[in-house]
Amino acid sequence: MSHPVVNSDVKSALDNSPETDIRDEAQQAPPPKNYLFLTIFTCFCPAYPVNIVALVFSVMSISSFNQGDREGAERLGRNAKWVAVASVIIGLLVIAIYCTVHFTTLLI
Predict the structure, then answer these.
(1) What's this model's pTM, rounded to 2 decimal places?
(2) d(CA 54, CA 52)
């Protein structure tokens, strides 16, 4: 019965592979905030063109970070946050105006 020969070159090649090198993961900073949950929440507000823009900014922030552009990801994340906040404010104004008009009109 023959025993398989273990080649040390194969083992050393696997030791240096990116999947087993955990030193880089400990040194990386956490990803910047992209406010994806907030922008998905704003899609339920009645300000459709604005909240879709916020969602696009959030997805672009994730894409920029994955491509290695941390500064661009932070900038796009901030844009997503402010557009989402504007979308919520616009949505609340639309709801308030609708309720005001609906409940103050007289039915003849």
Answers:
(1) 0.70
(2) 5
